[in-house]
Structure formats: structure tokens, C-alpha cells
User: What shape does this take?
Amino acid sequence: MEVIFLGVGEACDEKYPNTSLLLYTGNQKTLLLDCGFSVTHEFFKYEKDVNKVDIIWISHFHGDHFLGLPLLLLRFWEQGRIKPLHFVGQKGIDYVVRSSMKLAFPTLADKISFDYIFHQLVEGEEKEIEEIKFAVASTGHTQPNLGVRISDGEKVLYYSGDGPPKEGCYEIAKGCDLLVQETFLLDEDIYGHGNFIDCIDFARKEGAKSFAAVHMQRDARSSIVSYFEKNKDKFNDLNVIIPIHGDKITL
Ligand SMILES: [Zn+2]
Ligand SMILES: [Zn+2]
Assistant: This one.
């Protein structure tokens, strides 16, 4: 599985595009995880083929995680996409995708020539979509948000979306190859968000092989990075990375 970080920023960060991952799986599927305001322009820097993406995962309905979709779909239409597109997320994903498209480009939905298929996932159920296995669990965010376990049969990735892990997340993150977690602050508790120190413990407890910290609060990022740089010896048991947009990892 190859992972490209299209963005690692929070909603308002002017230096780092909104958090989003592009996955190329071992079984030849392509997934986009979240698509916020600033993601679509990043997407086309790495993937020119408008038929390539099979599945779009949306963690929750904050704009920095889904409001890049109308633009992505516009360009897919402009360049003649034909392949069906699967949207996966929580209850309401169909309404959110359709209504955001309508607001941004009112006639787009009528013109789109490819099918789009919606899948609403609930905690406790595993679902296979296009040969990719999904399991989800609620995190502790300010809006309902699902952390997701994604498996292609060889490798497993956990992506938090926003918010610290809740009980179910510990279950689905177990033994993953890469745990990508929102870490808004270094060590402070703030309602609705994770912090770097606690989330490293989460990754350790669940036996993740690698941990990637994303979605840092824009003014806290430098202190998290400098803490990590100065204390690398504390993380010898876990491959910790703080990616920036454009970084690629092969699992
Ligand atoms: Zn966010
Ligand atoms: Zn959010």
C-alpha cells in the first residue's frame, strides 16, 4: 500500500493544505481519505487520471474534510470520468455530497456522466466495498466523526479523521501498519481534539508499526515538531513521523 499525504493541516492553516491521504492499495484500488477546501488542487499534482479513484472516504462533515468535493467532481466531469465512484462515510453522506455539489456548481449533478454510490457505515459492523475492508468507530470530536480501519488484505491503515480515540477506536486500530492520527496540540487536553503525547500512547498500546501525526493546530505545530526532534530517543519503539504534504510512504 502506498500512502501520499496530500495535506496535513487543520482547517485554517495557510501553510499546510487540509489533512487528506491518497492511497494506492496492494490490490490495485485507489482511495481518497477526506477532501477539504484545499485538497483538490493538491490531488491533481499527484494523480492526473480522473478514472483512478475508486473510493472516497469522508470522516465527518466539517468543511476542511469534505468541501473540496464539488471541485474534485467538477474536474472529474470536465475530463470525462466514466468509472463509478463510491462514497463511504457516516449517515448523511449522500445528502452532504449532493447538497455541497448543488451549492458550488448548481447544474453539475445533472451533467455528471458516472454513477456515484453511497455507503453509510456504522460502528460495530465490517463492510467490504470494492475489495477493501472497512471498520469504523466514533472519535471524541465536536461533530460526529468516524475513525476508520482500511485493509486491502495485506496491509492495514487506521485514519482518525478528527478527534482523540474513544473505546471502539482502540479495537479497530489494533495491529495496524500505519496509524494516522489527528494531534491538535502537544500535550494539552482540549475538547474535540487529540494531543501528540496521548496519541503516541494510543499507537503503542494497539501495536501500530508506524504513527503519523497530522492536523496540528497551526500555532502549535512548531512546538510539537521541536519536541519530537529533541526527544527522538523516547520513540525508539515506534516509527513516528510528522509528514508534510507530498510525503509518500510505502507500507
Ligand atoms: Zn479538521
Ligand atoms: Zn472537524
